Amino acid sequence: MKKYNVESFNLDHTKVEAPFIRLAGTVDGANGDKVHKYDLRFKQPNKTFLKMPVMHTLEHLMAENMRNHYENVIDLSPMGCQTGFYLTVFNDDNSENIAEALEKTLHDVLEATEIPAQNEVQCGFAKSHDLDGAKNTAQEMLDGKDAWHQIFAE
Ligand SMILES: [Zn+2]
């Protein structure tokens, strides 16, 4: 297969088993810092997916709350294939730390009573949210926690 520039284009999505946390790549900065990209996979590729409002609400809640638990966050963004999120961090290639931060963040989702920045000033599609759906997905992800570090099906 052709080698692509984008790391995940070189991943065989038929071999992975969601849910999982996968270190998808590291970039070395000129001054010694490292930037790591994690694949937080919630749904099994090409079998199931997150509905857009659910993914959008998870994005708002996770992007906001994860920073309360973990100070190395650069960015958290949804995957276009609607099966998970990319988490970009600096100077931490230990996915155990990511798992710990994700677990706390998903508990925040379960306890949320409102969606941060759900308005037309702070969001580009404020109508497209689903808090109940986000909570169901957070619970499902937490239920699969024991398998987060197993990326490929056996
Ligand atoms: Zn938004």
UniProtKB/TrEMBL annotation:
Protein name, UniProt field: S-ribosylhomocysteine lyase
Key words of the record: Autoinducer synthesis, Iron, Lyase, Metal-binding, Quorum sensing
Family designation: Belongs to the LuxS family.
Cofactor remark from the record: Binds 1 Fe cation per subunit.
Described purpose of this protein according to its UniProt entry: Involved in the synthesis of autoinducer 2 (AI-2) which is secreted by bacteria and is used to communicate both the cell density and the metabolic potential of the environment. The regulation of gene expression in response to changes in cell density is called quorum sensing. Catalyzes the transformation of S-ribosylhomocysteine (RHC) to homocysteine (HC) and 4,5-dihydroxy-2,3-pentadione (DPD).
Assembly and binders: Homodimer.
Reactions that this protein is recorded to catalyse: S-(5-deoxy-D-ribos-5-yl)-L-homocysteine = (S)-4,5-dihydroxypentane-2,3-dione + L-homocysteine
NCBIfam families (UniProt xref): PRK02260.1-4
Gene: luxS
Cofactor or coenzyme needed: Fe cation
SUPFAM superfamilies, per database record: LuxS/MPP-like metallohydrolase
InterPro entries: LuxS_sf, Metalloenz_LuxS/M16, S-ribosylhomocysteinase
